[in-house]
Amino acid sequence: MSKIQQFEQNINKSRFQGQIIHDEDLKNHTTMQVGGSARLFLKPQDEQSLVLAVNLALESDAEFFILGGGSNVVARDGTYDGIVISTEALDFMEVLEDSLSSGEPEGSSKVDTVLVRCGAGVKTAGLVEFCDSKAMGGMETFAGLPGTVGGAAFMNARCYGTEISNVLHSARYIEFQKNPINSHNFVECKAKIYHNDSSGEDWSYKNSPFSRMNCVITEVTFKVKASDPSMADRIHAECEKYVEDRRQKGHFKAPSAGSVFKNDRNIGVPSGVLIDHEGLKGLAVGGAQVAPWHGNIIINSGSATGTDIRMLVQQVQDRVRTATGFMLEPEIIFM
To answer: What residues contact residue 287 under an 8 Å CB cut-off, 6+ apart?
Structure first.
């Protein structure tokens, strides 16, 4: 019996709640719209079922991949002979009754900041729209950002000078690891809670405490400005401004995974500028192309494969390194 068969047998006997899909087309779950299929594709409907799926994958020693909104992922061609565990169904969202201190004198009824709790599968743009509809500020710079809040927290997404770490209050996550003594004896995964402090020591550019461990985020709680109807028009206008700026920059012109390479602050020049200086805008491999309008975006022109994108990334890296000595670091993840 194969590892996948063992996993499927075990999960069918378990209390798993959610969908189990065979041979699911991965291009339907990534913004780049490339890739083959996954032998098994799971959509746990709650945290307990997600924990169960991860534990059973570890027990069977089967390969697995945690997938959020797929906005930063390039799926491989052919068949992924493993288990894709999607957070898509973890899509609840609520304003918590608890609020943060407003800094007002004791006894004051003024509340400046409230908490919004989201399942990891909530779309980041959907969270912004939710806050906008309730005249709650603080999330405007993330308007139009693809992907999920779980993925945004995992990579510490940064938009227009604001990082997710600036608005993240806490997160629930599951850490998983093999027992170092016996690779077939696994540590049971349980949910843990991360509380973000004001020091910022756990966070850096495009890095989070979660990206340094093997884990999956199941929910994120954000701190936003309390509802203020007098600010509704300004908040809405700000959201529209950032969406329009993304549109003007060509973010929505063709399937892509957003920025391909991280900016290296030691260089002091954005990666897109380095790529542009080498005349690489428009460079293509198969159906993958460096966007003619932005050096740090690779698009699917209609027939791209995962291999096309990987090869184009390598060509861009080689050309920039030859010219400048700098090695561009991808921020997209290849399955």
So the answer is: 300, 301, 302, 303, 304, 305, 308
Give yes or no for a contact between 173 and 192, defined as CB atoms under 8 angstroms apart. yes
Residue 315, number of CB atoms within 10 A of its CB = 16
Query: What distance lies between CA 91 and its chain's CA centroid?
Result: 14
Confidence of residue 176 (pLDDT cuts 50, 70, 90): confident
> Active-site residues: which are they?
259, 331
B/e letters for 232-242, b = 16+ CB within 10 Å, e = fewer, are: beebbebbeeb
Calculate helix-pair angle for 124-133, 232-248, nearest 10 degrees: 150
Burial call 194-203: b when 16+ CB within 10 Å, e when fewer:
bebeeeeeeb
Please tell me the predicted confidence (pLDDT) of residue 111. Answer: 65
- CA pair distance 202, 107, nearest whole angstrom: 34
The mean per-residue pLDDT over the stretch 257-263 comes to: 92
pLDDT tens for residues 33-72? 999 999 999 999 999 999 999 999 988 999 999 999 999 9
Query: Which SS3 state, helix, strand or coil, does residue 321 take?
Result: helix
- Residue 113 CB-density burial (10 A; 0-12 exposed, 13-18 middle, 19+ buried): middle
Can you tell me the mean pLDDT for 131-145? 96
Q: DSSP per residue over 171-185, as a string? A: EEEEE--B-SS-TTS
Q: What is the mean pLDDT of residues 71-99?
A: 92
CB 87 within 8 A of CB 73: no
